[in-house]
């Protein structure tokens, strides 16, 4: 049995969804508290928000969810941007602004997302990183409820959540837009869970597809694709919709508004898919964010697992197109490349352009290979124009190829539209001062329409307005872990959730993949193994870098006739600094449960 640890106090820069009140642990005494360390540009964090919703409904009188927003990007430190994100993603619990990463350090978080559980007497009883913990949390909460009900320390009743006032606009955080034949625009109205058709002015409502309620039928839809006419005629629908939070693609028939599921089981992806074709409706997808017609099929920006997939609407099959699920930046022949939350697609000539948001990069596929036009890595971002090798974006979500071969980029967290010219290899700024632009559309009349998501509107840019910004360079200010040079033991700590055991029926139950940026940081220890502990050798001549660690563990229920199986997986990008007096062991928690619970 380990020593009981008091939960650190909840101190932050401010609070949201509390009616203006700052909460303390004393205010929450008698409740089971689940802290969700997140940052709103992280797709895995958005997955966890969705996983927590059923728990909030089931245990609402005994459990209080608290979002701890510990930002990665500079833009995410803006309290107004955070307030918008809380509404955008339907966060219906209090959120504390951990803009200085104080709580992140107090609770020893090392990855987004991380969950921490506090019992009704104020003790920290569990910590877990990554996705897929809903069932384990439910079992743990049941145990805590039983124990603290018996002890008389659980106090049921309403929590501290205070909803913000509703707003009235045509759109609420629109995501993507396309042009329809005849000039009308089709827009994904993400926070209202619907697809909206408007006239060419971008304001006059024509019709809305979907009820506007989450899951009826859409849940935070994003990308839209108008199929080629001959394909649409064959399949019976005109538009493919990336139904992001439902982890599905839906077909929309414009003539009568019929909506059908065309790909995705509705379950979030949890395990690898080989390179063969799979039945589209039976396959699990992961946060499809955009769609484009390229290589005679639909290409899906599978943001949730850092890949591109393909979908054949005629054969009704899907498969992996590019990416290995490792979250980083590596070019080369597809599919063996690395991406990080691809979120925007556009086709120009023979190239498929990609807004790779977590690496703040503009990338493209041509002749079966992935290339990076602009972007330097997971932790390098800013607003800098000039030569492409020096230019910086900040979490771009949209891209539009232009007829002259150049590309417009919705540089979301810089609030700008940028232009990359492959002929000169230069980046310039077309417009700035925009509210989180998430997509760019070139219409048939030559207008440039920007989906200004944070302002809930479509905006037309003035033609020819191009200027140069020398802006600032940023790096993520996440605290680095000190390590000693030479031999370093990497331990991924994993304890199955209550009622589960490691599942070895199909081979080893665990898997660990390690790489580094820069690669020369690791002298030994890179690669894949089935052991969650590994000996690394750190290069003393490299002062700092990032260890990229991917760990997963397969479990199944115990003492159940028809046992369910589960896969827990987490990607870490761990900044490290090499120092002579640093520790020689680096522990990472995939899932850990304190026996005191």
TrEMBL record:
Keywords associated with the record: Repeat
Cross-referenced SUPFAM superfamilies: NHL repeat (SSF101898), Thioredoxin-like (SSF52833)
Pfam families, sorted: NHL, Thioredoxin_8
Domain Thioredoxin stretches: 1-146
Keyword check for Repeat: yes
Stretches forming NHL repeats: 393-423
Listed InterPro entries: 6-blade_b-propeller_TolB-like, NHL2_NHL_rpt_dom, NHL_repeat, Thioredoxin-like_fold, Thioredoxin-like_sf, Thioredoxin_domain
Name of the featured protein: Redoxin domain-containing protein
């Amino acid at each position: 049995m380990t020593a009981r640890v008091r939960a650190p106090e909840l101190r932050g820069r401010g609070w949201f969804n509390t009616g203006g009140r700052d909460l303390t642990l004393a205010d929450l005494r008698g409740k089971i508290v689940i802290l969700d360390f997140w940052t709103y540009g992280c797709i895995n964090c958005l997955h966890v928000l969705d996983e927590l919703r059923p728990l909030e409904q089931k245990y609402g009188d005994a459990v209080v969810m608290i979002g701890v927003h510990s930002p990665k990007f500079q833009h995410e430190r803006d309290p107004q941007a955070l307030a918008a994100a809380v509404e955008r993603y339907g966060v219906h619990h209090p959120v504390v602004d951990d803009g200085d990463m104080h709580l992140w350090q107090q609770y020893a978080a090392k990855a987004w997302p991380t969950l921490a559980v506090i019992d009704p007497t104020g003790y920290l009883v569990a910590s877990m990183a990554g996705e897929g913990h809903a069932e384990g949390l439910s079992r743990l909460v049941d145990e805590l409820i039983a124990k603290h009900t018996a002890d008389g320390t659980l106090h049921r009743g309403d929590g501290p959540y205070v909803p913000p006032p509703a707003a009235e606009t045509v759109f609420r955080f629109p995501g993507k837009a396309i042009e329809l034949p005849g000039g009308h625009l089709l827009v994904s109205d993400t926070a209202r869970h619907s697809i909206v058709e408007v006239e060419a002015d971008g304001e006059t409502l024509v019709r809305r597809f979907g009820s506007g309620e989450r899951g009826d039928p859409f849940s935070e839809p994003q990308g839209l694709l108008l199929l080629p006419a001959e394909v649409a005629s064959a399949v019976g629908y005109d538009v493919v919709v990336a139904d992001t939070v439902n982890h599905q693609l839906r077909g929309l028939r414009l003539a009568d508004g019929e909506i059908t599921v065309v790909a995705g089981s509705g379950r979030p992806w949890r395990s690898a898919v080989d390179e063969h074709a799979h039945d589209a409706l039976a396959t699990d997808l992961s946060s499809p964010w955009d769609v484009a017609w390229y290589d005679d099929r639909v290409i899906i920006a599978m943001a949730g697992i850092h890949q591109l997939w393909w979908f054949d609407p005629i054969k009704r099959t899907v498969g992996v197109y590019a990416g290995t699920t490792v979250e980083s930046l590596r070019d080369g022949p597809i599919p063996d490349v690395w991406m990080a939350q691809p979120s925007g697609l556009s086709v120009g000539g023979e190239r498929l352009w990609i807004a790779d948001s977590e690496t703040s990069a503009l990338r493209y596929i041509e002749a079966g290979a992935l290339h990076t036009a602009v972007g330097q890595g997971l932790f390098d971002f800013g607003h800098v124009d000039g030569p492409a090798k020096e230019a910086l974006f900040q979490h771009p979500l949209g891209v539009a190829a232009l007829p002259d071969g150049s590309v417009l980029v919705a540089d979301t967290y810089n609030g700008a539209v940028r232009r990359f010219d492959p002929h000169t290899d230069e980046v310039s700024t077309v417009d700035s001062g925009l509210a989180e632009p998430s997509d760019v559309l070139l219409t048939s009349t030559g207008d440039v329409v920007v989906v200004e998501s944070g302002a809930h509107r479509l905006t037309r840019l003035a033609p020819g307005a191009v200027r140069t910004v020398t802006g600032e360079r940023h790096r993520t200010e996440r605290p680095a872990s000190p390590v000693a040079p030479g031999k370093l033991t990497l331990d991924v700590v994993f304890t199955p959730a209550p009622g589960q055991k490691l599942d070895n029926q199909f081979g080893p139950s665990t898997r660990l993949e390690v790489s580094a940026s820069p690669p020369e940081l690791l002298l030994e220890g890179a690669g894949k193994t089935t052991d969650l502990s590994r000996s690394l050798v750190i290069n003393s001549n490299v002062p700092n870098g990032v260890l990229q660690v991917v760990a997963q563990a397969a479990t199944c229920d115990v003492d159940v006739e028809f046992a369910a199986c589960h896969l827990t997986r987490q990607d870490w990008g761990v900044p490290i600094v090499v120092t002579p007096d640093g520790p020689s062991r680096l522990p990472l928690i995939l899932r850990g449960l304190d026996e005191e619970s």
